[in-house]
Amino acid sequence: MNINDLIASWNYASCKVIDIRRITIKAGDSIRSYRVPSSLFLMSIRGNATVHLGQDVYDMQHFTVIHAGKGNVLDIDADMQDLDYYSIYYKGGVQPLAPSDIASRSFDLSYSITPNNPMPLYRIVSEMEKEWGRSNTLTRLRVGALFYQFVYELLHQLPKQGLNSKKRDLATQIATIVHENYAEAMTLETLSESLNYSVSHLSSYFRLRTGISPIDYLIKVRIDQAAKLLLETDATLKEIAAGVGYHDPSYFSRLFKKHRGVSPIRYREVNAKEQKQVDSPPINVEFSIVSSELVRYADDIDNYYHHEGDGEEDLFMFKDSRTTLVSALLLSFILLLSACGTNDALGTTTSQPSPSDAPVSSEQPQTKLVQTINGEIEIPTQPKRIVAGEYLGSLIALGVTPVGTSDHHIKNPYFNQYLKDVENIGDGNGNVEKILSLKPDLIIMDDFYPELNEQMSKIAPTVVIPYASLKTVHEEISFFGELLGQEERAKTWLNEYDNRIAIAKEKVLKVIPADSTFSVIQLDEKEIMAVGADFGKGGQPIYNGFGFKPPADVAAEMADPGWASISAEVLPKYAGDYIILTSDSKKLDELKKDPIWNTLPAIKNDRVFLWTSDRSGYWDPIAILSQTEELAEWLISR
């Protein structure tokens, strides 16, 4: 099936909902030879089943959506538990004035999708079924509107995964759900239910990937949204609080001040002027660098409100602000001429200037087009003022020093020597006001904060690289080498990186048998996690750099999904001959007195490397290289 053709058909669709039902099939029961009387959507909400549509067979599992055309013969066999699903019957056709190449056959196709983000679809369908039961003219109109909304959400997710369901990073799925549902009541329990993971696994994985909890991330997203509403609308505090998921304006005000340093009212007063300049630049100002056509860390317990009232007084009007055109042009010109410094991230000395500092010939192109997940954008060929919300390690490796980066990068101990004059743009991926003040000519972000990225694109060309999409050091460095016109420097850095990793490995394997088993473990107050090769804590050096393996019984689990939240009772199963242990609270002397830990061979033989999360929790290219050499020295000393 061609997805574009399907979307085109729905753009000219004329549909009428015929019936909506919620159906339960008992465990082991089935529906046989049911001839579908009209076009039909099925959406499972609990249980599993095998579905036959003519010659096609589908697995109906966690929130699967199946489409069946009129006249198809449907068979459903429930597995060993009850199957609950919604059925939406509709009559579909195309409008009379539709182009001749648009056919109604799309409504007769059979296909299946297990959406990456099922919650919006579930809410729409459950609301449709509720409205359908009221059975009056106005609610039928509501059902029709919800039906098109359902189809839109389904088609919106189809191009992202195609027809073959592709496993997405769990942290990315959590982030997507938070961004699309931040205004609703949300807990770890509701997140775990929607993604079919336990609370402990979901929370542990997200913290492992991002360094913060899902609830802290939710708070960050809500506060960012509230800040946007404060600057872009004249909504009251009560309206804004409710709009981002807080029913108590007083609680919202305190939380906002904690995260932004000022009250919502003061924030609006101080920042409205700069925001107006971004949203409404003088129409006759043009910049040579771009085309004129270019368009983690609090412990708040969220979702609980203990006070009533409207909080601070409401403010409806912005203060007026004006900037002279001459001053704006002069400032822009000066900033665009300023250059950023360079560093050698491999610790070697070079007298050769960075390409970003080289004179620019009038014949050289000033900009180039790059393809991003948000489409094709135009960026400067030699950016001078880069803001890097993410991927700072690769920039440092290429000798590029940004003017600003995120708080968690500032705290990265492996970056200390490179960030002397770099501004802190805030937690998460930063905040709009600080980034705006830095006057960047290029912004680099991941896709964890899509609303922030949309605002960034109004400030400067913004390259968004999907979170966790660059899988290896080589892939990441090569990508940014091409993006920033630093291909040769990228090759040089990677060659030396490979050489230093090889030297470290050779030294280690001279003293540690290659068949020794290793465990990479994180020990917190409440949980123990065994970590694979892709999540920091030393996994990359141990498994990828040195080539060691985890214990045989857990090798498959450490490969996919790549981590495990475990109890102390099963710790011996996960413990190898050597343990790389991250703990911010425990000392080795304490573990040697523990009745379970002291039975482990690695503890008995003094083969435990203990470090804290502020050193082990990073896995950028610079950190991985440093960690590899640090662990090599320790292993040699054993």
Could you give the topology of this structure?
Blueprint (H helix, E strand, L loop, with lengths): L2 H9 L1 E13 L4 E6 L3 E8 L2 E5 L2 E5 L4 E4 L4 E6 L4 E12 L16 E3 L5 H14 L4 H25 L8 H12 L6 H8 L3 H12 L3 H19 L4 H7 L5 H12 L3 H16 L45 H13 L29 E6 L2 E6 L5 E3 L3 H6 L6 E2 L1 H4 L12 E2 L7 H6 L4 E4 L4 H10 L2 E3 L8 H11 L3 H25 L6 E6 L4 E4 L7 H7 L9 H5 L3 E4 L4 H4 L3 E6 L4 H6 L7 H4 L3 E4 L1 H4 L4 H17 L1
Parallel strand pairs: 12-13, 12-15, 13-14, 15-16, 17-20, 20-21
Antiparallel strand pairs: 1-8, 2-7, 3-6, 3-8, 4-5, 4-7, 6-9, 10-11, 17-18, 18-19
Helix pairs in contact: 1-3, 2-3, 4-7, 7-10, 16-17, 17-24, 18-24
Protein name: Iron complex transport system substrate-binding protein
Organism: Cohnella phaseoli
Pfam families: HTH_18, Peripla_BP_2
Shape: globular
| C-alpha end-to-end distance | 59 Å
Helix content: 40-55%
CATH superfamily of the largest domain: Regulatory protein AraC
CATH top level assignment of the largest domain:
Mainly Beta
User: What is the helix tally?
Assistant: 24
Major β-sheet profile: 5 strands, antiparallel
Amount of beta strand = 15-25%
